[in-house]
Amino acid sequence: MWGVKNYKNKKRMLFSDLAVVEVDDKHDVAVQVIGNRVVVSLIHSDKKEHIVPTIATSVQECLTAAIHRISEFYSTLSADSFATDERSDLHIVMPFEIEFGVHCKKASCFFPHDKIPTAAKWQCSEHKVHHDVSCLKLWFSEKMPREKCATSCQGLGRLEVEQSPTNKHLRRLASSLEDNDCRELLISLGLDTKVLNNLQKKFSPSAFHENDYKYTAMLRWKGIVTGSSFKTIADAFGEIDKHLLCEVIRDVNVDDVLTTFSIAEDQANKTPTNTTLQELSNHIGNSGIQLAVELGLQSAEIEGIQNDHSCKLLHQNKEILRVWSQTKFPKPTIKELIKALQRIGKKDCLREISF
Protein backbone atom coordinates (compact mmCIF):
# COMPACT_ATOMS: atom_id res chain seq x y z
CA MET A 1 0.00 0.00 0.00
CA TRP A 2 2.66 2.52 1.08
CA GLY A 3 6.42 2.08 1.17
CA VAL A 4 8.44 2.20 4.39
CA LYS A 5 9.99 5.65 4.75
CA ASN A 6 13.73 6.11 4.44
CA TYR A 7 15.43 8.35 7.00
CA LYS A 8 17.75 10.80 5.23
CA ASN A 9 17.67 8.45 2.24
CA LYS A 10 19.73 5.89 4.16
CA LYS A 11 18.02 3.87 6.88
CA ARG A 12 14.52 2.51 6.64
CA MET A 13 12.23 3.61 9.47
CA LEU A 14 11.28 0.08 10.49
CA PHE A 15 11.81 -1.06 14.09
CA SER A 16 10.62 -3.87 16.35
CA ASP A 17 7.56 -1.94 17.56
CA LEU A 18 7.38 0.98 15.11
CA ALA A 19 7.10 1.43 11.36
CA VAL A 20 6.78 4.68 9.41
CA VAL A 21 5.40 4.57 5.88
CA GLU A 22 5.33 7.39 3.36
CA VAL A 23 1.95 8.36 1.88
CA ASP A 24 3.33 11.31 -0.11
CA ASP A 25 6.09 13.89 0.25
CA LYS A 26 4.22 15.64 3.10
CA HIS A 27 2.22 12.89 4.83
CA ASP A 28 3.50 9.87 6.76
CA VAL A 29 1.71 7.14 8.70
CA ALA A 30 3.36 5.86 11.89
CA VAL A 31 2.29 2.41 13.12
CA GLN A 32 3.36 1.57 16.66
CA VAL A 33 2.61 -1.32 19.02
CA ILE A 34 1.84 -0.07 22.54
CA GLY A 35 0.67 -2.74 24.95
CA ASN A 36 -2.31 -4.52 23.36
CA ARG A 37 -2.95 -1.70 20.89
CA VAL A 38 -1.70 -0.99 17.39
CA VAL A 39 -1.62 2.81 17.31
CA VAL A 40 -1.79 4.48 13.90
CA SER A 41 -0.93 8.17 13.55
CA LEU A 42 -1.13 10.40 10.48
CA ILE A 43 1.71 12.93 10.42
CA HIS A 44 2.32 16.04 8.34
CA SER A 45 5.88 17.20 7.76
CA ASP A 46 5.04 20.78 8.80
CA LYS A 47 2.15 20.64 11.28
CA LYS A 48 -1.15 18.82 11.71
CA GLU A 49 -3.19 21.84 10.59
CA HIS A 50 -1.89 21.21 7.05
CA ILE A 51 -3.11 17.60 6.82
CA VAL A 52 -5.21 17.15 3.67
CA PRO A 53 -8.66 15.83 4.73
CA THR A 54 -9.09 13.55 1.71
CA ILE A 55 -5.75 11.88 2.45
CA ALA A 56 -6.78 11.29 6.08
CA THR A 57 -10.07 9.76 4.95
CA SER A 58 -8.48 7.53 2.31
CA VAL A 59 -5.91 6.27 4.86
CA GLN A 60 -8.73 5.51 7.31
CA GLU A 61 -10.73 3.62 4.68
CA CYS A 62 -7.69 1.55 3.64
CA LEU A 63 -6.83 0.64 7.22
CA THR A 64 -10.45 -0.12 8.14
CA ALA A 65 -10.85 -2.41 5.13
CA ALA A 66 -7.61 -4.21 6.07
CA ILE A 67 -8.74 -4.65 9.69
CA HIS A 68 -12.08 -6.08 8.61
CA ARG A 69 -10.44 -8.51 6.20
CA ILE A 70 -8.06 -9.68 8.93
CA SER A 71 -10.98 -10.02 11.36
CA GLU A 72 -12.96 -12.04 8.82
CA PHE A 73 -9.91 -14.28 8.30
CA TYR A 74 -9.60 -15.00 12.02
CA SER A 75 -13.35 -15.52 12.30
CA THR A 76 -13.17 -18.10 9.51
CA LEU A 77 -10.37 -19.91 11.32
CA SER A 78 -12.36 -19.85 14.56
CA ALA A 79 -15.45 -21.17 12.80
CA ASP A 80 -13.44 -23.96 11.13
CA SER A 81 -11.92 -24.99 14.45
CA PHE A 82 -15.41 -25.49 15.85
CA ALA A 83 -16.77 -27.19 12.73
CA THR A 84 -17.40 -30.43 14.61
CA ASP A 85 -18.98 -28.68 17.58
CA GLU A 86 -22.68 -29.48 17.97
CA ARG A 87 -23.49 -25.93 19.20
CA SER A 88 -25.10 -23.95 16.38
CA ASP A 89 -25.26 -20.65 18.29
CA LEU A 90 -21.51 -20.15 18.58
CA HIS A 91 -20.68 -16.42 18.78
CA ILE A 92 -17.54 -15.45 16.93
CA VAL A 93 -15.72 -12.57 18.63
CA MET A 94 -13.74 -10.30 16.31
CA PRO A 95 -10.10 -9.99 17.43
CA PHE A 96 -9.88 -6.25 16.76
CA GLU A 97 -11.75 -3.15 17.92
CA ILE A 98 -11.27 0.31 16.41
CA GLU A 99 -10.79 3.22 18.80
CA PHE A 100 -9.74 6.85 18.51
CA GLY A 101 -7.45 8.61 20.91
CA VAL A 102 -6.01 11.95 21.95
CA HIS A 103 -2.84 12.72 23.86
CA CYS A 104 -3.57 13.14 27.57
CA LYS A 105 -0.80 13.96 30.04
CA LYS A 106 1.81 11.21 29.61
CA ALA A 107 -0.45 8.74 27.83
CA SER A 108 -3.49 8.82 25.52
CA CYS A 109 -7.21 8.60 26.13
CA PHE A 110 -9.21 6.30 23.86
CA PHE A 111 -12.89 5.87 23.07
CA PRO A 112 -14.90 3.61 20.68
CA HIS A 113 -14.95 4.69 17.05
CA ASP A 114 -18.73 5.19 17.05
CA LYS A 115 -18.48 7.56 20.03
CA ILE A 116 -16.21 10.12 18.39
CA PRO A 117 -17.07 13.57 19.84
CA THR A 118 -18.87 15.90 17.44
CA ALA A 119 -17.88 19.00 19.43
CA ALA A 120 -14.44 20.60 19.20
CA LYS A 121 -13.77 19.95 22.91
CA TRP A 122 -14.11 16.67 24.78
CA GLN A 123 -13.51 15.82 28.44
CA CYS A 124 -12.01 12.41 29.16
CA SER A 125 -13.67 10.57 32.02
CA GLU A 126 -10.44 9.22 33.48
CA HIS A 127 -8.38 12.40 33.90
CA LYS A 128 -11.16 15.05 33.68
CA VAL A 129 -9.09 16.95 31.13
CA HIS A 130 -10.63 18.91 28.25
CA HIS A 131 -9.06 17.98 24.91
CA ASP A 132 -9.19 19.60 21.50
CA VAL A 133 -10.55 16.77 19.32
CA SER A 134 -11.27 18.78 16.17
CA CYS A 135 -8.40 17.04 14.36
CA LEU A 136 -10.13 13.65 14.74
CA LYS A 137 -12.82 14.73 12.28
CA LEU A 138 -10.20 14.56 9.54
CA TRP A 139 -10.57 10.79 9.52
CA PHE A 140 -14.20 11.16 8.44
CA SER A 141 -14.33 14.60 6.80
CA GLU A 142 -14.47 13.80 3.10
CA LYS A 143 -14.49 10.84 0.78
CA MET A 144 -12.19 10.95 -2.20
CA PRO A 145 -14.02 12.83 -4.97
CA ARG A 146 -16.10 10.94 -7.50
CA GLU A 147 -18.79 12.24 -9.83
CA LYS A 148 -21.55 9.70 -9.17
CA CYS A 149 -22.06 6.50 -7.25
CA ALA A 150 -21.40 3.48 -9.43
CA THR A 151 -24.13 0.88 -9.76
CA SER A 152 -22.07 -1.37 -7.49
CA CYS A 153 -21.77 1.28 -4.75
CA GLN A 154 -22.88 -0.11 -1.41
CA GLY A 155 -23.25 3.31 0.20
CA LEU A 156 -21.25 4.56 3.16
CA GLY A 157 -18.23 2.71 4.52
CA ARG A 158 -18.16 0.46 7.57
CA LEU A 159 -17.10 3.18 9.99
CA GLU A 160 -18.94 6.06 8.34
CA VAL A 161 -22.37 4.51 8.74
CA GLU A 162 -21.90 4.30 12.51
CA GLN A 163 -20.75 7.90 12.90
CA SER A 164 -22.89 10.73 14.16
CA PRO A 165 -23.32 13.25 11.29
CA THR A 166 -21.56 16.56 11.78
CA ASN A 167 -23.30 19.89 11.35
CA LYS A 168 -21.81 20.11 7.85
CA HIS A 169 -23.33 16.76 6.93
CA LEU A 170 -26.74 17.80 8.23
CA ARG A 171 -26.61 21.09 6.31
CA ARG A 172 -25.72 19.34 3.08
CA LEU A 173 -28.43 16.73 3.55
CA ALA A 174 -31.04 19.39 4.36
CA SER A 175 -30.13 21.42 1.27
CA SER A 176 -30.41 18.35 -0.97
CA LEU A 177 -33.96 17.54 0.18
CA GLU A 178 -37.21 19.19 -0.81
CA ASP A 179 -39.18 20.72 2.08
CA ASN A 180 -41.76 17.91 2.17
CA ASP A 181 -39.14 15.15 1.94
CA CYS A 182 -37.11 16.75 4.72
CA ARG A 183 -40.20 17.13 6.88
CA GLU A 184 -41.25 13.50 6.37
CA LEU A 185 -37.73 12.30 7.12
CA LEU A 186 -37.55 14.25 10.39
CA ILE A 187 -40.99 13.03 11.47
CA SER A 188 -39.85 9.45 10.75
CA LEU A 189 -36.78 10.15 12.88
CA GLY A 190 -39.04 11.20 15.75
CA LEU A 191 -39.02 15.01 15.66
CA ASP A 192 -42.31 16.48 16.89
CA THR A 193 -44.43 18.22 14.24
CA LYS A 194 -44.96 21.17 16.61
CA VAL A 195 -41.21 21.75 16.69
CA LEU A 196 -41.11 21.66 12.89
CA ASN A 197 -44.01 24.11 12.58
CA ASN A 198 -42.45 26.55 15.05
CA LEU A 199 -39.10 26.45 13.27
CA GLN A 200 -40.76 26.98 9.90
CA LYS A 201 -42.47 30.11 11.20
CA LYS A 202 -39.27 31.40 12.79
CA PHE A 203 -37.25 31.05 9.59
CA SER A 204 -39.91 32.29 7.18
CA PRO A 205 -38.69 35.94 6.89
CA SER A 206 -36.61 36.80 3.83
CA ALA A 207 -33.58 37.46 6.03
CA PHE A 208 -33.11 33.70 6.25
CA HIS A 209 -32.01 31.30 3.52
CA GLU A 210 -34.56 28.73 2.34
CA ASN A 211 -32.38 25.93 3.73
CA ASP A 212 -31.89 27.48 7.19
CA TYR A 213 -35.19 26.05 8.45
CA LYS A 214 -34.41 22.52 7.26
CA TYR A 215 -30.88 22.62 8.63
CA THR A 216 -31.99 23.94 12.02
CA ALA A 217 -34.66 21.23 12.22
CA MET A 218 -32.00 18.60 11.50
CA LEU A 219 -29.83 20.12 14.20
CA ARG A 220 -32.75 20.06 16.66
CA TRP A 221 -33.31 16.37 15.94
CA LYS A 222 -29.65 15.58 16.54
CA GLY A 223 -29.80 17.44 19.86
CA ILE A 224 -32.74 15.50 21.29
CA VAL A 225 -31.84 11.94 20.30
CA THR A 226 -29.49 9.80 22.37
CA GLY A 227 -27.63 8.25 19.45
CA SER A 228 -27.72 9.90 16.05
CA SER A 229 -25.93 8.10 13.22
CA PHE A 230 -25.91 7.85 9.45
CA LYS A 231 -27.47 4.40 9.82
CA THR A 232 -30.41 5.88 11.73
CA ILE A 233 -30.96 8.39 8.93
CA ALA A 234 -30.58 5.77 6.19
CA ASP A 235 -33.10 3.47 7.87
CA ALA A 236 -35.65 6.32 7.94
CA PHE A 237 -35.10 7.37 4.32
CA GLY A 238 -37.94 5.33 2.88
CA GLU A 239 -38.16 6.10 -0.85
CA ILE A 240 -35.40 8.71 -0.72
CA ASP A 241 -32.21 7.75 -2.57
CA LYS A 242 -29.76 6.53 0.08
CA HIS A 243 -26.86 7.63 -2.13
CA LEU A 244 -27.63 11.19 -1.05
CA LEU A 245 -25.63 10.28 2.04
CA CYS A 246 -22.65 9.49 -0.18
CA GLU A 247 -22.95 12.98 -1.66
CA VAL A 248 -23.13 14.48 1.82
CA ILE A 249 -19.69 13.07 2.67
CA ARG A 250 -18.13 13.31 -0.78
CA ASP A 251 -15.48 15.97 -1.38
CA VAL A 252 -15.96 18.65 -4.03
CA ASN A 253 -13.37 19.22 -6.72
CA VAL A 254 -12.58 22.90 -7.34
CA ASP A 255 -9.61 22.46 -9.67
CA ASP A 256 -11.62 23.87 -12.57
CA VAL A 257 -12.57 26.90 -10.45
CA LEU A 258 -8.92 27.54 -9.57
CA THR A 259 -8.05 27.34 -13.26
CA THR A 260 -10.88 29.67 -14.26
CA PHE A 261 -9.74 32.35 -11.83
CA SER A 262 -6.00 31.70 -12.41
CA ILE A 263 -5.34 30.73 -8.80
CA ALA A 264 -2.13 28.73 -8.43
CA GLU A 265 -2.00 25.78 -6.03
CA ASP A 266 0.42 27.49 -3.64
CA GLN A 267 -1.83 30.55 -3.53
CA ALA A 268 -4.91 28.38 -2.97
CA ASN A 269 -3.27 26.98 0.17
CA LYS A 270 -2.83 30.44 1.69
CA THR A 271 -5.22 32.18 4.07
CA PRO A 272 -7.32 34.80 2.23
CA THR A 273 -6.50 38.43 3.03
CA ASN A 274 -8.79 40.73 5.02
CA THR A 275 -9.46 42.67 1.82
CA THR A 276 -10.68 39.54 0.05
CA LEU A 277 -12.95 38.64 2.97
CA GLN A 278 -14.32 42.19 3.13
CA GLU A 279 -15.17 42.10 -0.57
CA LEU A 280 -16.75 38.66 -0.25
CA SER A 281 -18.98 39.65 2.68
CA ASN A 282 -20.85 42.05 0.38
CA HIS A 283 -21.99 39.16 -1.85
CA ILE A 284 -23.08 36.49 0.65
CA GLY A 285 -26.58 37.87 1.26
CA ASN A 286 -28.80 35.66 3.41
CA SER A 287 -26.53 32.61 2.98
CA GLY A 288 -24.46 33.51 6.04
CA ILE A 289 -25.60 30.59 8.20
CA GLN A 290 -25.08 28.16 5.34
CA LEU A 291 -21.55 29.46 4.76
CA ALA A 292 -20.70 29.51 8.47
CA VAL A 293 -21.67 25.85 8.86
CA GLU A 294 -19.71 24.84 5.77
CA LEU A 295 -16.65 26.72 7.04
CA GLY A 296 -16.82 24.75 10.29
CA LEU A 297 -18.06 27.33 12.78
CA GLN A 298 -19.74 25.87 15.85
CA SER A 299 -23.47 26.40 16.48
CA ALA A 300 -22.75 28.53 19.55
CA GLU A 301 -20.46 30.78 17.49
CA ILE A 302 -23.10 31.22 14.79
CA GLU A 303 -25.85 32.00 17.31
CA GLY A 304 -23.58 34.50 19.07
CA ILE A 305 -22.87 36.30 15.79
CA GLN A 306 -26.58 36.41 14.97
CA ASN A 307 -27.42 37.84 18.40
CA ASP A 308 -24.64 40.42 18.30
CA HIS A 309 -25.62 41.62 14.82
CA SER A 310 -29.35 41.06 14.75
CA CYS A 311 -31.03 42.05 11.45
CA LYS A 312 -27.67 43.15 10.01
CA LEU A 313 -26.74 40.54 7.41
CA LEU A 314 -23.63 42.34 6.18
CA HIS A 315 -22.21 42.59 9.70
CA GLN A 316 -23.03 38.94 10.32
CA ASN A 317 -21.25 37.87 7.14
CA LYS A 318 -18.18 39.96 7.97
CA GLU A 319 -17.97 38.46 11.45
CA ILE A 320 -18.45 34.90 10.16
CA LEU A 321 -15.54 35.29 7.74
CA ARG A 322 -13.40 37.01 10.39
CA VAL A 323 -13.94 34.24 12.95
CA TRP A 324 -13.22 31.55 10.35
CA SER A 325 -10.03 33.23 9.13
CA GLN A 326 -8.66 33.17 12.69
CA THR A 327 -9.27 29.48 13.35
CA LYS A 328 -6.17 27.39 13.95
CA PHE A 329 -7.44 24.01 12.79
CA PRO A 330 -8.01 23.15 10.08
CA LYS A 331 -5.99 25.85 8.36
CA PRO A 332 -8.30 28.44 6.71
CA THR A 333 -7.29 28.55 3.06
CA ILE A 334 -8.58 30.08 -0.16
CA LYS A 335 -9.24 26.58 -1.48
CA GLU A 336 -11.41 25.65 1.50
CA LEU A 337 -13.29 28.93 1.15
CA ILE A 338 -13.96 28.21 -2.53
CA LYS A 339 -15.16 24.70 -1.64
CA ALA A 340 -17.57 26.17 0.91
CA LEU A 341 -18.91 28.70 -1.61
CA GLN A 342 -19.42 25.96 -4.18
CA ARG A 343 -21.22 23.81 -1.60
CA ILE A 344 -23.78 26.56 -0.88
CA GLY A 345 -24.24 27.63 -4.49
CA LYS A 346 -22.32 30.89 -4.19
CA LYS A 347 -19.43 30.17 -6.53
CA ASP A 348 -20.36 33.15 -8.70
CA CYS A 349 -19.28 35.44 -5.85
CA LEU A 350 -15.71 34.74 -6.89
CA ARG A 351 -16.20 36.95 -9.95
CA GLU A 352 -16.64 39.95 -7.67
CA ILE A 353 -13.55 39.54 -5.50
CA SER A 354 -9.78 39.52 -5.97
CA PHE A 355 -7.19 37.22 -4.42
From TrEMBL:
Q: Which Pfam families match?
A: Death (PF00531)
- Residue span(s) of domain Death: 273-355
* Family matches, as SUPFAM superfamilies: DEATH domain (SSF47986)
The protein's name is Death domain-containing protein
Picking any one GO biological process from the record gives: signal transduction
Species the sequence originates in: Mytilus galloprovincialis
Which CDD domains does the record associate with it? Answer: Death
Q: Where are the transmembrane segments?
A: none
